[in-house]
UniProtKB/TrEMBL annotation:
Superkingdom of the source species: Eukaryota
Residues covered by the AGC-kinase C-terminal domain: 291-366
Family matches, as InterPro entries: AGC-kinase_C, Kinase-like_dom_sf, Prot_kinase_dom, Ser/Thr_kinase_AS
PANTHER family: RIBOSOMAL PROTEIN S6 KINASE
Annotated source species: Aldrovandia affinis
Domain Protein kinase residues, every copy: 30-290
GO terms for MF: ATP binding; protein serine/threonine kinase activity
Keyword entries, A-Z: ATP-binding, Kinase, Nucleotide-binding, Serine/threonine-protein kinase, Transferase
Organism taxonomic ancestry: Eukaryota, Metazoa, Chordata, Craniata, Vertebrata
Protein name (Swiss-Prot/TrEMBL): Uncharacterized protein
Length: 366
């Protein structure tokens, strides 16, 4: 794929759920409240719909001029594909996206706001009870199972990307590092992800399989139960060295079922790792660690979460002053020139089936 100039987005066909409302969605449909996060070429805004529902959303704004490299363009296209796939399926444990729009400088995805924080925020270096860790791990297993069944590897599973919704269910977020075409025997080679959670084969081999996702889940389970990652260190080099060589030290308070599943997930041989074979997530479902989970009930969200987070006031009250830094300039930029330029990329259009108040459900495509 040749890439020149800025990344552009076009609409294959205008489709709206509400046929009475043909208006295209723009930043003017939202009131931005705070900056939830920022990375190299993207920011995530907390925004309130200004029409009837006054519902809260997270808007991912991607700077198109910063995405001129092939790998970044490929990742964005993959992310949009996964967003549409999971959203159309309304998967309960993946963060869904409802619509998208663009300005001249930014591609914007309007996502559901899992507004009770990430597991990293809730842990704050402390451990969860085992029932709580089992519940969140079960949600993660079902989310990864959905991706793996569609030959997608997540490649960045970590506490910061595991978010809680208002009912206490956990959702996997951030599909920016996902990789398509990852069947059981397929390999990827890009060194990508978060060092503390990386599987050893990602650090040493020329390629790796989607079994790296299950290693990451092992790190997540350990961190939830112990309060820190199993291979933490003072710098990147030390962390990598420990991932490759250190034996995991299991505190005596961990149950034997917890130790056993972590050991199977943190197997340095990817071929022997739990979940690495054709049966994938089914191998995890059968572990004693999950013996109390009714998987059908969990998928249907009929299991009462062990913890339901509460917040004082509303979402608007949760913005720490420092998170609002730079938001005025960003919103001003987003509001400039709503009309897109011609695009070099063209994919078919899909629409989320759920009604979102009066908001148009139109995906714009790379």
């Amino acid at each position: 794929m040749a890439v020149s100039g800025a990344l552009h987005i076009i609409v294959d066909q205008e489709v709206t759920v509400n046929q009475q409302n043909k208006a295209r969605c723009t930043m003017e449909d939202f009131a931005c409240i705070s900056l939830l996060g920022r990375w190299m070429y993207e920011k995530v805004l907390l925004a309130e719909q200004t029409r009837e529902t006054r519902e809260m959303f997270a808007i991912k704004a991607i700077n198109k001029r910063g995405t001129v490299h092939y790998e970044i363009v490929e990742r964005l296209m993959c992310e949009q594909t996964i967003i549409e796939m999971s959203t159309n399926a309304c998967h309960p444990f993946l963060v869904n996206t409802f619509t998208s729009f663009q300005t001249q400088l930014h591609a914007c995805f309007v996502m559901e706001y899992a507004g009770r924080g990430g597991l990293l925020t809730h842990s704050k270096g402390r451990s969860f009870t085992e029932p709580r860790a089992i519940f969140y791990s079960g949600c993660a297993v079902l989310g990864l199972e959905f991706l793996h069944e569609r030959n997608i590897a997540h490649r960045d599973l970590k506490l910061a990307n595991l978010l809680l919704d208002s009912e206490g269910y956990m959702k996997i977020a951030d599909f920016g590092y996902c990789k398509e075409g990852m069947g059981v025997q397929d390999h990827a080679s890009t060194l990508i992800g978060t060092t503390d959670y990386m599987a050893p084969e990602m650090l040493t081999d020329k390629s790796y399989t989607r079994a790296a996702d299950w290693w990451e889940l092992g790190v997540v389970i350990f961190e939830m139960l112990v309060g820190n990652t199993p291979f933490n260190g003072n710098n990147q080099e030390e962390i990598c060295d420990r991932i490759l060589t250190k034996d995991v030290q299991y505190p005596s308070f961990l149950s034997k079922e917890a130790v056993l599943i972590i050991q199977k997930l943190l197997c340095r041989s990817p071929q022997l790792r739990l979940g690495a074979g054709e049966r994938d997530a089914q191998e995890l479902r059968e572990q004693l660690f999950f013996r109390e989970i009714d998987w059908s009930a969990l998928l249907a969200r009929k299991i009462q979460p062990p913890f339901v987070p509460t917040i004082q006031g509303g979402p608007k009250d949760q913005a720490h002053p420092k998170t609002v830094w730079g938001i005025s300039n960003l919103v001003s930029t987003l509001l400039e020139q709503q009309q897109p330029e011609p695009s070099a990329f063209h994919l078919s259009s899909t629409v989320h089936p759920r009604r979102l108040g009066t908001l148009p459900h139109t995906f714009h495509h790379f």
